[in-house]
Structure formats: C-alpha cells, structure tokens
Amino acid sequence: MTNPPNQGSFDAVKIPEFRSLVMGRFCFVMALRMMTTLLGWWIYNLTNAPFAIGLIGLSEVVPAVSLALYAGHVIDLSDKQKLLRRGIVLYFTAVLILLLLSTKNTAHFFSNHTIAIFIYLIVFCTGIVRSFVGPVFNVILAQVVPKNTLQNATTWNQGSYLSASVTGHGLGGVLIALLGNTGTFIVIACLIATAFIILLNIKPKPPLNERSEKRTWESVKEGLNFVFKTKEILGALSLDLFAVLFGGAVAMVPVFARDILKVGAEGFGSLNGASDMGAICSVILLTAFPMRRKQGYKLLFAVFGFGVCIILFALSKLFVLSFIALLLSGMLDGISVVIRGTIMQLKTPDTMRGRVMSVNSMFINSSNELGQFESGVAAKLLGVVPSVIFGGCMTITVVIITWLKAPSLRKMEY
Q: What is the pLDDT of residues 319-331, one digit of tens each?
C-alpha cells in the first residue's frame, strides 16, 4: 500500500473529526466484539450444542444481507451522522434487554431454551440495525478526510477496528470470568454510551446526491452494476467472501476452549482475540513497510496461508499451538483486509459510497455470520474438528480456483 508523496503516517490523525470517528468506532466495535464473545459462550452453556452457536450467526446475517442494498440507498440519501447516532441508540437498547435476560431473576422465570430463543430474536433485530450502521462508518470516513489522505486514513481506520476487535474478544473472556454475563453486559452498555458521546463531535454529513427522482430499485441497481463492472472490487470481495465463509473457525472456539483444549473462559477470550491480534501486527507492519506492488498476488497468497492456519488450528491439541495458528491466520487476514479496504475507498465515487459499502457489508461483514452458521452446520454433520479442517481445505480450494480463473486479480496493483 503506497502513501502519496509528502504524506506522513500521522496526517489523518491530525484531523479532529477523524480522531472522533476512530475513537468512537473503537469503543463501539470493542463493545460489539465483547457481545459476540459473550453470546457465543452464553448460548453454548445454555444449550451445550455447537449448532446453537451457528444459529447466532444465521439470526444476524438474514436481516443484514436482506436489507443491505436498501440500506445503501438510504445511506446515500440521508444525513450519515444522524443515521449513525440512531443506530447506536438501538444497539444500546438491545444490550439493555440482553442484560435483563442474563440476570438470575430471569433464569427463575424462563427455561434455558426460552432464553436462547429470546437471544436469537434480539440478535435478529441487531442484524437489521447493523445493515445501516456498518457501512455508515466507512462512508463518513471519506467525508472527514481529504482524498489525498484517504489511504493513510484507511490504514488507521483498519488498525483501530482490529485493535478494538482483539481488545473486545480478549477482554470479553476475562470479564465473563470476573463479572459473569450480567456484569459483562453492563460494561458493554457503558462502552456503547461512550461511543455515542464521542461521535457527537462529528458534524452533520448531509447527502452528496441531490434528491433523485430515481426509484429505490433503480438506485440499488446502479450500485450493484458499479460493483460488478469494477473487477478489482468484485474480485477482492468474492475472494474474501468464500474465504471467510469456509474459514470461520473462530465460531467453534467456545467448543475448542471448553471441551478440546480445556482452558476455560480466560483461554477462550485469548483464542478469540488471537486472530485480531495478528491482524493488528499486519496493519502496523504495513504502515511502516507499505506494499508497493503486486498487491493482488499478495492477497491470494495471504488467503491461501489463512486456510493452512485454520487446518493447523483444527489439528492442534495444545493451547500454545492453537493460539499461534490463529495469530498467524489473523496476520494473513490483516493483509487482505488492508488491500480490500484501500481498493474500496479509492475506487468508489463519493455519490455511491453508501450503496457500494453496503454491498461490501453484504459480501464481507455478513459472511462472518454466515460462516458462523456454516461452521455450526458442518460441526453437526461432520464433528467439530473435521468441520474446521473442511473449512480450511475449502478456503485453499477457493484460492486455487481464483488463481486459475481470475488472472486480472492476480496481476492487480494500485
């Protein structure tokens, strides 16, 4: 990844609105990652079924994918700041409801099965909110920094996101052990409230488009056509979609932590944060040593290595080896995240960012939850360890097919 001439590594951070965006997003993403960690651990202890963990992903991915294209249309025609604030308030409300469900009094009134159903319903609602909130962060990013600082801002943004992920995953496991489910939800609610306050420093971001007479479907189709005609965007999105879909070993970490490695909640949090920790290392290295050329080749190599690491994790019976495998998988995934994020920001016109970022959300962000569901189904049919091995092998297969069938992606440079 190259920086424009005369651009320093800290140029984006000097912009007040960008600092607010990054800090607010950090708190928000950390809260969501803690909630993901907690829900996986909670639902598994309620049901003792790996498949139940996969259903969490399905509950969120269905509304997130179904509404993604419409959400992009709405984002392009809305004040991004107001839309973001409303979404965060709704997330805060969902956390408060989950907090009440986690109390001992609730456990006296409802069975574990009933509580699990309530959890799925709430996660379904957060999936609706996510279809709007997720893309808005990336759309606002391009509106708070000048274009010549966009690459630098993208790197900082990805670093903040990944740092929040590893902190949320790791701290989530620790807090579960120290405070229990209810105490952890209180911390999550406080983080979301903090994010809301910080993001108030961002000025209104009205739509760049003039109010168009186009119908909603015409507007959505325009965004889809742009993505499918821009081969660099389509290739990077497709590769990551299938890699995350089949390589979602993290979804089964609660099972590995409790039943295979027997490391409890603390080890669970460490394993959950390992991949994100590796991704942070990649972002730091790429900031110091930017990729100058052959980004497409490096993207394919990184995803191939990611698949190998997932297989190693599945076969490991040692906590240290499992942690290292996930750490390396995160480092390789971090490379693909930076390449894809830079392509998305540089190739997308300002007037279409909402729709294009929503397509990105549909391809990539929701593929995590779909991958979680796939992992749950595969674990039920094949067993936990064989299912993760299968996912790693499928990731490698996807890379080989992409290498042979998409030479333009392999040769891509920016």
A: 999 999 999 998 9
